[in-house]
Structures are given as structure tokens and as C-alpha cells.
User: Which sequence fits this backbone?
């Protein structure tokens, strides 16, 4: 509330990121809030109302990892020729973009500018910003975690003894399955591009 968030903002944040409720207000949450508002207001030039709206729809932005990851996404997009101000203008796509993995976006940028596709880096940034690229981004840098059914099917194929030995198997299975999906998309794209005329 001291940072200017309304009750609606706070309720939305606690719903999508309940771990915020367990943070120390002065030691942990305040610095993250300040860093996040600096990114949204100073770097991306969002008005206070729009910054609050992004916070309401961007899970994890008020966690240490999430705020740092969002900064890295903005830095990466800037290095690809997309200005922070133009990112801020696209308020609909911005929450999803800030929620994506910077490493996954970087991998996509390397793929597109590499030997297979040979796009110029500034064109890669422009492509990633287009609404038509949303499906590609969802495939290689998804925002939502894999659903429980997919994870359950994947876990069923693993050795039950090794599953009992590890406490964080679900997270590992999710990460492994996601990595396999991304590799499949990249490999399929490379094969498809090989048939296109140069």
C-alpha cells in the first residue's frame, strides 16, 4: 500500500504469487518493489496505473528471480534493437514478455541469427515483438508451466525407485520435458528451413 498499490492490485498479486505474503516487508519486498517500479516506470516509461496493471497480470515479478529475469529480458530486447520505450507501449504483450525466460529468448535469438536462418539481430528483435510470433515464443519460451497431465505421463515413464529417492522430481520432470519440447521445435524448424529456397 505504501508503494501506491490498491487493494485490487494486492489481491491479484497475492493470488498469482502467494510467496509475496511470506517476504520480509523491509528487507526483501521493499527492494524488489523499488527495482520493479524502476524497471516499469523509469526504464519502460509506464504510467503508475499501467505499471500497477502489469504487476497485477505478471506472476513472479515481485520475486527476486522474477524481477531480475524481467530486467534481463528488457536488456536482451534492447540489445536486439528494440527500445525500452517501444516495449512499454505494447501494454498487452508486455506482461507475457516480462514473464518469459531470458535464456530461452536468447536461445531463440541465436537460432534465428545463426547459420540456419541468418536474420540480422535488429530484425530478430522486431520479429519477437510481433503478435504473429507469440506461438513461436510460447513453444520455445513458454510462460505457463506444463499441465499436470503432461507431467504425470512423463513421470510414468521414469523409474519409480529413482522417483522416490528425489524430492523435487516433479520440477525436474517439468524442466526436462520442457527442454525436450524446445529441442523438438528447434530441430523441426531447422529441417523445415532446409527445404526453403535460399
Assistant:
Amino acid at each position: 500500500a505504501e508503494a501506491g498499490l490498491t487493494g485490487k492490485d494486492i489481491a491479484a498479486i497475492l493470488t498469482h504469487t502467494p510467496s509475496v505474503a511470506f517476504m520480509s516487508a523491509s528487507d526483501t519486498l521493499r527492494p524488489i518493489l523499488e527495482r520493479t517500479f524502476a524497471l516499469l516506470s523509469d526504464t519502460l516509461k509506464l504510467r503508475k496505473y499501467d505499471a500497477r496493471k502489469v504487476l497485477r497480470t505478471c506472476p513472479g515479478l515481485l520475486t527476486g528471480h522474477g524481477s531480475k529475469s524481467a530486467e534481463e529480458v528488457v536488456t536482451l530486447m534492447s540489445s536486439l534493437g528494440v527500445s525500452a520505450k517501444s516495449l512499454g507501449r505494447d501494454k498487452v504483450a508486455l506482461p507475457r514478455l516480462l514473464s518469459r525466460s531470458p535464456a530461452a529468448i536468447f536461445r531463440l535469438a541465436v537460432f534465428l541469427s545463426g547459420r540456419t536462418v541468418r536474420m540480422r539481430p535488429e530484425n530478430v528483435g522486431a520479429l519477437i515483438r510481433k503478435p504473429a510470433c507469440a506461438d513461436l515464443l510460447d513453444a520455445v519460451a513458454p510462460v505457463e508451466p506444463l499441465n499436470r497431465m503432461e507431467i504425470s505421463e512423463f513421470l510414468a515413464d521414469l523409474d519409480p525407485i529413482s522417483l522416490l529417492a528425489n524430492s523435487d522430481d516433479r520440477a525436474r520432470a517439468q524442466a526436462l520435458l520442457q527442454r525436450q519440447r524446445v529441442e523438438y521445435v528447434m530441430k523441426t524448424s531447422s529441417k523445415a528451413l532446409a527445404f526453403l529456397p535460399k
Remarks:
- The two ends are 57 Å apart (CA to CA).
- Residues 169-194 form the longest helix (26 residues).
- The CA atoms of residues 14 and 114 lie 41 Å apart.
